[in-house]
DNA sequence: CATGAATGAGAGTTCATTCAT
DNA sequence: GATGAATGAACTCTCATTCAT
């Protein structure tokens, strides 16, 4: 596959991403993607063979970019509390965003593809986030910023709350204030002065 | 509509429920329901006009029954901690259950039907559950069973954790131990002795 | 399936037969049959699910009718030689017929469906024809009409010659005179006076 | 066309032959051949314009080689009976061979290309074989090995039996014993002692 | 009320064929 | 000459929905 093909492949994935953002996963057909890309019916099949495959490739790209973002922000020179707040603010932005988010599509995809533990990207990301938060809390405790007796438990609790907010945002609607309220509640329990 | 019709209507809804449990919401076709009910294609249209409508009716029935269940267990004569534990155990059972649960179908349904606030059953149920838990905690605090400075915040936090566990169970898999761990974590923060 | 459906099913098979006669087996698509029958695309699928299935049903009908024909002619009151001649003449007519014959389609069908011995209709028909011819020759020998030391061998030989003529007619072309010549050659070896 | 082109042309034909052997004629697509040859889609079109054309060229090559084979074996120094037996044995080997035979593809090709008499290679080969057998029988009769009153009739009969066996092998299955039985039957009628 | 045959739109997929490089 | 990306027609199959009985 030449340079040109690689470009086109990327173009298709980027365009398909928009389609998934708009329609979720299940409703998207090869035809939808063909039309969004403005290529021929057969053309798409030169690159991908199913919406499922396309979606997984989109996710791969997405994950790479997200990882880069994470590592970028973590390098920042700041206190544990600052970084945690930054992380939570990032999550809030993500979960309130209606446009330009794959959240719903990802859920739908995992609904029908109960991937085995090893391959389950969601689980990997969840666990990885728990570890990062745990480290942050531990650092905060050492610094005297936080008070916490069960750092990993607290980290896990935070992540499940965030998951709960995320799915709630997609199904019952969640306002900016509601998210703030939950974040504040969690931080209050963590902060020393309290 | 005669007595007979009412019976048939109910029969269709009960059978359709099984189909939704099995396949989620989006993948279910009128044909699926017709075949599951073993009635004629045209027959189904006499009662319902789309899978969406059928699903909403199924949900209505479901909600009524769940409510009954709730009020039943709440009438039980027990301490606040007991009742809360009972409630959490019930939630655990529900979210670990792979078979016989509409969870996935409900999520899928709400993904594509972002119902306005007033009609959003999920939201109503969520808020109602928050209020019940809040009351329980308040009672517990009064009894000296619990210690809590922000009862409604705590209730909300609990519900979001449960939501997080629920969606996680559907997408990344959640074990009985994982649920217990989360429940325990929340209770520890609530109980006086700790 | 009601009376009407049975009629339509039969109508489809009869129409499909014409298509197979015209185009053989492999080239025929569901679309061809849909168009020949002037029914809707989906309509055909209510009755049959593939060209292969349709062809097999066409063959079933065909075989029934052919069997009836055979038994009809065999009941005739005549000498063995007469009947054998009648049979050969019938075969000749069949193999020279360009129009209205499934021969080519049958060959194509069996090319790609190497059916196991038990289900192979061609084999059954071949063996059954051998047995009939054998009986005729035996009767002829008893009557003094024929002379033959290996009746079953002779019967088999005849059938293979007929098969050879049949495939030759479809591939290299065979004239009426050529068929007569072969039939005559076989009969000469059989007849007493020779 | 340069030397290199001629080589490539030959390479394509040899590779295509394998494809036809495996899939018959009708089912073979240009894509199949392109993939088997591992050349570019466009590249194939520089040499050939359709599967039909390719198949005819494959047949040409095949015929040349077969002819060479024939003339080779005929040069052998042996009695007429020996040569005839050799020929029949060769035919038997050919018709029992499932692998590496174009038989089915050839039939399929001639089914849809009812070539005019002059161009019909099958007919030419058939007639030529008849003549060779006829000569052999005549020689055998002169030598006193065979007894036969109608040499050309007998030769033709033999060839039709062989054709019948060939198509039977492709459609209803034929065992080695069955072929032997037929060959034996024909030779018995020919041999003097019988 | 109930049936189930019929329709036709639409999705998936494959390939012959072309054409810019 | 050679490549292989691109196109678009053609085919298979499935359903929501209608309608005569």
Please tell me about this protein's structure:
- The structure is a homotetramer of 194-residue chains.
- Chain A is mainly α.
- Helix content of chain A is 75%, strand content 0%.
- In chain A, 29% of the residues are buried.
- The model of chain A has no long low-confidence stretch (mean pLDDT 88).
- Chains in contact: A-B, C-D.
- Chains A and B meet through α6, α7, α8 and α9 of A and α6, α7, α8 and α9 of B.
Assembly state (oligomeric): homotetramer
**Total E-strand runs of chain A:** 0
Portion in strands of chain A = under 5%
Total domain units of chain A: 2
Record the SSE blueprint.
Four copies of one chain form a homotetramer.
Chain A: H1 3-23, H2 30-37, H3 41-47, H4 51-74, H5 80-96, H6 103-112, H7 121-143, H8 151-171, H9 176-190
The first copy, chain A, binds a DNA duplex (21 and 21 nucleotides) through residues 1-2, 4-5, 8, 29-31, 39-43, 45-46, 49-50.
Give a brief description.
The structure is a homotetramer. By secondary structure, chain A is mainly alpha-helical. In chain A, about 75% of the residues lie in helices and about 0% in strands.
Quickly list its features.
homotetramer, 194 residues, mainly alpha, 75% helix, DNA-binding
């Amino acid at each position: 596959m030449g340079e040109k093909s690689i470009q086109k492949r990327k173009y298709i994935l980027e365009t398909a991403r928009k389609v998934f953002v708009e329609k979720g996963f299940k409703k998207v057909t090869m035809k939808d993607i063909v039309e969004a890309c403005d290529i021929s019916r057969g053309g798409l099949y030169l690159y991908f063979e199913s919406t499922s495959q396309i979606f997984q490739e989109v996710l791969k790209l997405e994950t790479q970019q997200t990882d880069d973002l994470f590592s970028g922000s973590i390098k920042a020179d700041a206190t544990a509390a600052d970084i945690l707040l930054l992380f939570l603010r990032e999550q809030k932005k993500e979960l309130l965003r209606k446009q330009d988010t794959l959240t719903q599509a990802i859920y739908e995809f995992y609904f029908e593809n109960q991937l085995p533990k090893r391959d389950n990207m969601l689980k990997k990301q969840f666990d990885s986030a728990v570890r990062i938060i745990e480290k942050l809390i531990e650092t905060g405790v050492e610094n005297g910023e936080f008070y916490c007796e069960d750092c990993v438990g607290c980290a896990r609790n935070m992540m499940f709350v965030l998951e709960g907010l995320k799915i709630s945002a997609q199904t019952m609607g969640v306002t900016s204030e509601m998210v703030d309220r939950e974040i504040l509640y969690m931080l209050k329990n963590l902060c020393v002065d309290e």
